[in-house]
Amino acid sequence: MRVFLTGATGFIGSHIIPQLLDRGHQVLGLTRSEAGASQLEEAGAEVLRGDLERPETLARGAAAADAVIHCAFDHNFETFFENTKKDERNIAAMGESLEGTQKPLLITSGVGIGTPLNGGAATEDVLNPRHANPRIATELAGAALIARRIDVRTVRLPQVHDATKAGLITPLIAEARRSGAAAYVGEGQTRWSAAHVSDVAKLYILALEKGEPGARYNASAEEGVTIRAIAETIAKGCGLPLRSIGTGEVDRYFGWMAPFAGLDMTASNAWTVARLGWTPTGPELLADLGAMDYSAPSET
What CA–CA distances, in Å, run from 139 to 5, 31, 170, 195? Predict the structure, then answer.
């Protein structure tokens, strides 16, 4: 297949490209810069110039391909709500190009959208349309296309990591440095699900080749790692004190990340594994956090 890939030069997208090529697919990658175009060409992909501010460029890529993997998302959390609406517009634009075809569109969301109302690990069968996370806009946009018989499949991401980046934990390291301590709330028993970036890339390929229209897949290799264990590893790596804090200190220690500090983000992968045969083999989260170079500033 010729696969249109957004976010092609990003953390996950750059791992998806070689796996697609190894499977005999062609890749048409979206980029807005000369540097990105050079990166894609060196990786063996075709180049489509465009960006998330111009939905028509994504629609053009979708129309030119046999399938779409949509990984791109603007991760500026200061404008998070606006960015989710932008994602909604881009998904709608690509859907318009795919209507009346059998071409699959894989979109990207977060595992938290599958959290049951009564708590517990997120599962693939749960979609709460009134979820408080603004990222619900992504899945509602996908649901609108599914209602029009467009083949939409959703990959839900946990904390995606290697030894250089780790989802929300990367900015968490920066906040720890700012506040002077690696903190956790209370006993630190809330947990975050995680998966190595290579395993996440494998799941996108499986969802493309073996997935079902309308299905949602949890890319959670580890159902949950305690926030205390994460903070302990950060403290050791950064040479910072480890500190348990109360709810009244959350803003001071976590800054803009305060809403996530005590949030349980566990996710089951049982249904995904059963349906796709996904077998994660990459390093676990704490191993990658332990291998990070903490002498370099954290990238957010």
Answer: 18, 24, 25, 21
